[in-house]
Amino acid sequence: MSDAVTRRRKGPGLANFRSRWSEQPKGNHIPDVAAKHSIPSGDDEGERQGALKRFSAMWSSFRRGKRDRVKDTEPTEPQGPVGANETSRQHRYVSGQYFFEYLVVVSLKKAKGSSSYEPQITYQFPKRDGMARFQKEEEEKTLKAITLFCFPEGINWAPLTEYHSETFSFVLTEIDGSRRNGYCRRLLPGGQGARPPEAYCIISSLACFGLFSKIFDEVEKRRQISMAMIYPFMQKLREAPFPAPGNTVEIKSFIPESGTEIISLTRPLDSWLEHVNFATLFSCLKDEEVLLVFAAAVLERRIVFIADELGTLSQVLHAVAALLYPFTWQHTFISIVPEILIDVVMAPTPYLLGVQKHLLDLVTDQGDLLVVDLSVDKKETFIVSIGDESSILPPKLQSEILAALSHRQEAPSVEEMNRVVSEAFLHFFVKTVGHYASYVKYGRAGEPGVFEKRSFYKAIESKTTRHFVKKFIQTQMFDLFIQEVEQQHPGPQQGIFHTKILEYQEKKKRDKAKKHKL
Q1: Could you give the CA distance from residue 113 to residue 116 in angstroms, rounded to a whole number?
Q2: CA–CA separation, 18 vs 133, rounded Å?
Q3: Cα-only R_g, the chain
Q4: Which of 80, 175, 374, 387 could make a disulfide contact with 307, Cβ separation 3.0–4.6 Å?
Q5: 122-161: per-residue pLDDT in tens?
């Protein structure tokens, strides 16, 4: 960040917010903080508290309901116009035919009666017409909330002459549990002299960071020519079908003096990794340090990541969550915590949080958590830790993960590197809990299965592995995974996790047969 930026400390009046985190939410219910307040304006403390309540309810977690949600279902479409044409468009969006819900430009404007700047939406595409009044009010609150995630620092900005553009992402979680992804690029707008940066933000139910980063390249190129050039490109993108994994969609777009360009957008073949780039995680942490973070995450502990760059925070947090595949982080997840929400670190429940370094003093007075410094100039990686992280995972399996991770240096592409990293941790779960299906017992046809937990972990021969699994099966991520298995019909499972389980079981059979021959 430029030296032209001056810091502003957090104001008082957040004590009431702390008390809201005194109970663990149950199921898909969010704590009683969903008060109908608008985003804070001016110095009205009541409005400030209302905003805190609303943000914590809407955005602070990407927790799913333990019983009512099923993995990999189609995303829920946010409320929109009730007209017939809009209903048809919503259906196309839900079915995955739309890349995004909308694009907004957030600019820093001088606040009324003040020399300081505040973020405001200055452009939105598409505009939603024909909304009911309550729908319009909800969208206005959503759009205003987005401005905080585009400029989360909570500082007074000053006009700049130089600013390195940065791309980052965040997750928006609605009160009903549905999730949308926010992709943001901040840059210095065209013009002469000092000026504040602006942010482009795309809201989409689709999780594909690399694809949207390329879209931002095209938006930025057109913005340098004229704001009017953005509209036709985004319109064509919105009408284009979202490609299947490994496929490409081509979009024709006209640019003055360049003519018609064909932009190719390709989805990675491993679609479950398309929102992740592990390179940033491993550039910030050593392999052994990544293993300690994974150990804390797999037991659903409170983890805070510290960095200056927003892009670093968002990429690392999404990467850590991806290491848990095929399990899903069920608790609070904020890749970039706005300063107004910094008291979320007081929550007694598990979380993954990304916090900018200038707020570090507001984090380190907490105990019973892991604080990880991702900065280049860090003195130590783990500023705060419980101390047992190195003993959580079975030693033999730790060594196997580290050995598998060493092969990523040979990967010829980012996609291959992502696959190598992911499979290193996927094999860990295969070897520790991959026998789960044998311990889900089904009775009458149509009735859900029953998981025999005790028999499951007692079947593990290794004492250290059994000790780990006894802890892991108490987590919400494992609990939800098993509940979904219990609801499924008996028979062969599908997906890459089950494929790896079968491969591992076949290898064990072959190895056993070889021993018998000897």
Answers
A1: 9
A2: 32
A3: 24
A4: 374
A5: 988 887 777 787 777 878 878 888 998 999 886 667 788 8
Mean pLDDT calculated for residue range 464-482: 96
CA distances (Å), origin 400, targets 117, 415, 423, 487, 499: 52, 22, 11, 33, 20
> Tell me: the pLDDT tens digits for 28-49?
222 222 222 333 334 444 444 4
- The alpha-helical segments, DSSP class H, found in 129-229 are 133-150, 209-225
- Give which of 350, 344, 340, 353 is closest to 305, Cα–Cα: 353
Contact in structure between 454 and 473 (CB atoms under 8 Å) = no
Query: At residue 391, does pLDDT exceed 70?
Result: yes
Amino acid identity, position 480: L
Q: Are 316 and 209 in contact (CB under 8 A)?
A: no
Tokens standing for 13?
């009046």
Please report the pLDDT score of residue 270 as a whole number.
67
State the DSSP code for 321: H
pLDDT band per the 50, 70, 90 thresholds, residue 366: confident
Pick from 451, 420, 447, 419: which is nearest to 433 by CA?
A: 451
Which tokens is 64 given? Answer: 């799913």
- Cα–Cα distance for residue pair 277/271, rounded to 1 Å: 12
* Pairing outcome for strands 351-356 and 302-307: parallel
Residue 215 and residue 181 in contact, taking contact as beta carbons nearer than 8 Å = no
- Angle, CA of 28, 34 and 39, to the nearest 5°: 135
The pLDDT tens digits for 310-320 are 999 999 999 99
Confidence bin at 60 (pLDDT 50/70/90): very low
Contacts 24+ apart (CB under 8 A), 68-77: 68/27, 68/28, 68/177, 69/28, 69/177, 69/480, 70/484, 70/487, 71/328, 71/484, 75/178, 75/179, 75/180, 75/205, 75/206, 76/174, 76/176, 76/178, 76/205, 77/205
Phi, psi of 332 (to 5 degrees): -60, 130
Distance from C-alpha of 178 to C-alpha of 172, rounded to nearest angstrom: 8
Look up tokens 């079968």; give the residue.
Answer: 502
**What pTM was estimated for this model as a whole?**
0.76
Pairing of strands 351-356, 332-334: parallel
Residue 474 has pLDDT above 90, yes or no: yes
Cα 337 off chain centre by: 12
Residue given tokens 């509940």 in the structure block:
483
Q: Hey, which residues does 488 pair with through a beta bridge?
A: none
Distance, C-alpha 226 to centroid of its chain: 32
Q: Which long-range contacts (CB under 8 A, 24 or more apart) does 30-35 make?
A: 30/57, 30/61, 30/175, 31/56, 31/57, 33/57, 34/58, 34/175
E strand or H helix at 417: helix 414-433
DSSP 31: P
Per DSSP, the residues of 325-338 read TTS---SEEESS--
